[in-house]
């Protein structure tokens, strides 16, 4: 049947035209003829094809609103239409080039008995070789065929005198409406009443036009017989009312579907049912589970059995055959017994591959793959509900690649290796496809084993807190995935299980997944949710999903570098609980990674507020360890912004020349194709380096270099130096006394002013860094009109003849407040009201700020100076610094300075702003110029 207008050009097509708005006339038009017929002619034989079509509303496929055509032999059609008109068959052998075969074919198609041909014309219909033979099979025709369905429709036997109605037994296929045959589709569109099996899914029933009455058989367990009786009764009533009755049956009507019984019943009542085959689940289920029913060299037999015999008896168990595929329907409830019987009675080797295909072709299809020996156990563990088809045989593995995971497939080995005693939910993650081709961005290529389960409880103890947080995540995922998590037979049950295990809590913490799985954002490709995260390797994503679904993280995931990768991925996906856990872990293991991956970690942590502890760690390390900047291998992990950020740090403990070299190493690593020898650079190379280094270069404090060093650099790299900067530096070098460099608004102010160092004989570097870090952190609030100021540190006053009175004098002379600090240990200061037990206590009134809770600074007493300024060992953990520093406390502003202490410094700054800088002209004084 064809509905396209341009197909009319073929001369041998019959074109049936119904005049517009006419219910009276119908016509047939071929290219040669234009013969009109009354509708009454076409409906002269009401149970034949034309009769049925034009009895009510014509249902041939429409070309136009009033035109239909049937893609049939127009010459034969002439005789057929004449038969409708006159009741006589004028065709004789040899007439008008229409062969006997063609004539029979056409009669069959139009559901006319071939008895209307005279005896001489009759031929064995089986010998028909018409090229359009299949058409008759596709239509609810009386076409002769070998099929049991059609044998009973034999057109040679005179039809029973029909009662008014018509009955069709229609196969609805396994579930997906796309797998309905065209005949089945047409039948359900044209029916007056549809009596459907329970197993026919809603998606198919939805295709039924609203005006058609639908009844669903109530064939529940133990109720099959009464339900069947009711079906018969309703069908007969409708038939006797002259209705077109469709018995809609799941799969194929005859295969374990009582279709044969129903056929007999209706035949005994004088109706010849039309039977429309359907795609049977016995074929569709294996196919849709990637299992070919037969496969050369592996399976050459295909057996379909029931898993439950009549009246709930045990079925006959087929004997094992190595080259056979066996399919069992109605087997789920009997799986324990059936699999045992297969092994014991059927002598199946327990390791024979098998698969349970649940809800084949439906949106929530799931496959459980195992062996005859373990399938029952696995089905019990993951939960499994009818309808499902069991496939047994070696073919089950043939299209599966070893070890690969497939969407919608649960592998027995995964389920069995989970420790049930931990009461964790374990199941496959069927709906999220993990693209293993994604390159792993792991810190190194070290693989990780997925063995060894580790629960969060092991890390946190049995705290209820993590459990409730976790359950929120799980619930969030489940509530959103209910529609896509199609391997779960009963999602609500799963959620209930989770709720039973943990307290029920509303909400969700993983904003990322909530959004990602929401209807607005979700992107589905072939029914799968696709997460495009090229920077997260597939192994890491799998660990994340596993954590989300099962509350497990693996012990091995806690080892570097997996822990680091997992942490950054979890951060990106907003799983803060996991991030915190892993961050602690990564920090604890810092000695293992910092030399090799220092910049990688710094870079990753610099961009995330959740990784602040790591960032703080790296920043401190950067300041305190002379070599870390110049010696770490992975400097190219830094982005230009982070590099700039580093160069702007006060108190970097690196010579400016080394810093310049580190910058150039970075630039070359970023552009490995550019020669390390600037004289070899092409114009393009120069542009590229200029772009990269433009901002960075002006943050090198070139004034800290000797003239020779500076000239060497400029000479070599002058192509990438901004001319203005070169000029300014030249001017500076020619007359260093000029104060051009003090102009903070100068575009090259950084180059022209010295880097802020702790240049002290009495303060250790750590003390200096500690102080600078604190000040710098505090100054991130940066007030716009920040005025240069001085902080004065005084120590060992008495050793140098400095008395309490001198201090007093300074305090009196200065503004309102003075901060007095004293180096204590190599890492710390103590600052407190000055006093000297042997002399008059200094009157500090409100001029002296106290700082910290350390012992009093006692002027005039020789405090041993534990100066280790040059003895700093950069390989030492900076953690040590933190833990050994008296004044260090965790605070909202960072590690070194609590809010309160920052406030103190703030007070000092306010004091000094606008006042004449107080300086003590003793060699002991340390001056921090703060621009
Ligand atoms: O004799 C009985 O009907 C009861 C025994 C029983 C059977 N399957 C069973 C049960 C348990 C039960 O339903 O309580 C078990 C049974 N009956 C059924 C299913 C499918 C399901 O519930 O998802 C299942 C399988 C459940 C499972 O996988 O564990 C339903 C069923 N059985 C059957 C049909 C077809 C029909 O009645 O029209 C239907 C479909 C009904 C519908 O959709 O409305 C038919 C059936 N049940 C059965 C057989 C016998 C097979 C044989 O030995 O040749 C046959 C085949 C036949 O009668 O031609 C046996
Ligand atoms: C009573 S039998 C009817 C079989 C049906 N006539 C056919 O040809 O598919 C019902 C059984 O078919 C199988 N079945 C039906 N629909 C299925 C589906 N969508 N996926 C897997 N198996 C299915 C199950 O084994 C179920 O127990």
From TrEMBL:
GO terms for molecular function: uroporphyrin-III C-methyltransferase activity. It catalyses: uroporphyrinogen III + 2 S-adenosyl-L-methionine = precorrin-2 + 2 S-adenosyl-L-homocysteine + H(+). The keyword Cytoplasm does not apply. Residues 510-557 form the BTB domain. Residues 137-155 have a biased composition (Low complexity). Residues 123-167 are annotated as: Disordered. InterPro entries: 4pyrrol_Mease, 4pyrrol_Methylase_sf, 4pyrrole_Mease_sub1, 4pyrrole_Mease_sub2, BACK, BTB/POZ_dom, CobA/CysG_C, Siro_Cobalamin_biosynth. Pfam families: BACK (PF07707), BTB (PF00651), BTB_2 (PF02214), TP_methylase (PF00590). It is an enzyme of class 2 (transferase). Its EC number is 2.1.1.107. Transmembrane segments: none annotated. SMART domains: BTB. Keywords: Amino-acid biosynthesis, Methionine biosynthesis, Methyltransferase, Porphyrin biosynthesis, S-adenosyl-L-methionine, Transferase. Siroheme synthase involved in methionine biosynthesis. Belongs to the precorrin methyltransferase family. NCBIfam families: cobA_cysG_Cterm, PRK06136.1. This is uroporphyrinogen-III C-methyltransferase. It comes from Paraglomus brasilianum.
